[in-house]
Amino acid sequence: MRVCELLLEAKQVGREFNHLEDLVFTDPANGATRAVEILRGLEQDSSDVAIKWDGYPTLFWGRDKDGKFLLVGKNAWGKVKADSAKEVADFIKQSGKGVEEEPWREKFGNDMAALWPMFERATPESFRGFVYGDLLYHPGKPYTGEDGLIKFTPNKTTYNVKVDSKLGRRIAKSKAGVAATMVFENFGDPMNAGKPIDSVEEFNRSSDVVVLGQTYVDHRPAVDVENLDKVSRLAGQAQGKIKAFLEPRKGLADIQDIFYRYVNHMGRQRKLDQLNTQTFFEFAEQKVSAPKQERIRNLAAEYEGVMEDIFALIRGIMTAKDEVIRELDSAEADITANIGPEKGGEGYVKQKDRVKFVPRDRFTLN
After folding, report:
1. What does the DSSP 8-state code read for residue 199?
2. Residue partners of 128: CB distance under 8 A and separation at least 6
């Protein structure tokens, strides 16, 4: 088997930030052990754990190499280098099936156009590049005030900010808020070209717009030592077998991606407690070619018990991760979140390890 053949057939598994438990198959050589180490380390240092904002919609804004300001939604990134707020609105209204069949486009286009002058004023003349972020509130969907809290619900999650906090006082004077995550050098750069934004201070010069960077937690959660010890022991016993089983090979270079799609499928079905060999092959019968199914079955027979070890590790890591999320959600903080009556939001991201702590029982998409 030639290495170049695998490189041509294989592809990156998952996203830039994957779920912590996905390390079991995205990093088969050491992923389960790494996940345990990450969880254990939170008790000593959680300083790089940040809120995963559930903002909507996403947008890009900034200045090109000539200093010209631009603001577009994600679907126009690299496609429409608009000269004005009107062009942005017109693009949205004329996209898809148009406003006659999709009337929501009228308001959405007008909302995006209203952001243009505010974000232009907030972007320094000397800045070059484009910021990517998620809207949290804006004139078309403003925040509200209640019981000493400022509240906004950009998507599924409602965020609650104490009015008398430093952030609360800033929001109270503003018209729009955005959580910035990445910066790009050129208009239309691919998403993997984005770099984490180090500081948002230069974009907070206008009172109209609050630009938030990474918002870190200030609580160090306890972890379930007994559960992690069990996961660690199993990882030590099974890691070599898992590495061999998930090694990309000719005709099955995407085996890790198949596991990734299966776990996400079970998440969408709210059946993550049913991760096992039987449901894996039920999924494979619908989504994977017959030859690949046969190759996976043969590998599973060669490495007896490996698939159940993989699923046991995923479940164990997920259980420990969910306990950490619940503790972080319950901690006293200037910003709290809820989804309906349930406390907590979309979860958290750990920057250094590039993994996310998402409560998949609340969020079923990958």
Report:
1. -
2. 62, 63, 64, 65, 67, 185
The encoded tokens of residue 51 equal: 């809120």
pLDDT tens, 201-226? Answer: 999 999 999 999 988 888 889 888 88
Calpha distance 173→94 (Å, rounded): 34
C-alpha dihedral sign at 94, 100, 104, 107? positive
Q: What is the DSSP string of 104-157?
A: HHHHHHHHHHHHHHHHHHHS-TT--EEEEEEEEEBTTB--EEETTEEEE-SSSP
CB 321 within 8 A of CB 21: yes
**CA angle centred on 103, ends 101 and 107, rounded to 5°:** 155
Q: Check residue 132 and give left, alpha or beta (phi > 0: left; psi -120 to 50: alpha).
A: beta
- Let me know: does 18 contact 356? Beta carbons within 8 Å: yes
pLDDT classification of 363: cutoffs 50, 70, 90:
low
pLDDT digits (tens, 9 = 90+) for 261-320: 999 999 999 999 999 999 999 999 999 999 999 999 999 999 999 999 999 999 999 999
Give the pLDDT confidence score for residue 12 in this predicted structure: 65
Which two structure tokens, joined as six digits, stand for 274? 């049913």
pLDDT value at position 178? 97
Assigned token pair, 327: 């503790």
DSSP 64: -
In angstroms, rounded to a whole number, what is the distance separating the alpha carbons of residues 186 and 70? 11
Residue pair 20/263 in contact (Cβ under 8 Å)? The answer is no
Pairing of strands 144-146, 176-184: unpaired
**Own/partner pairs, 231-235, CB within 8 angstroms, 24+ separation:** 231/32, 231/35, 231/36, 231/313, 231/316, 231/317, 231/320, 232/33, 232/36, 234/32, 234/309, 234/312, 234/313, 234/316, 235/32, 235/33, 235/36, 235/313
pTM of the model: 0.79
User: pLDDT at position 2, please?
Assistant: 44
Distances in Å between the alpha carbon of 51 and those of 54, 216, 356?
9, 6, 10
Does the pLDDT at position 152 exceed 60? Answer: yes
Residue 8: per-residue pLDDT: 37
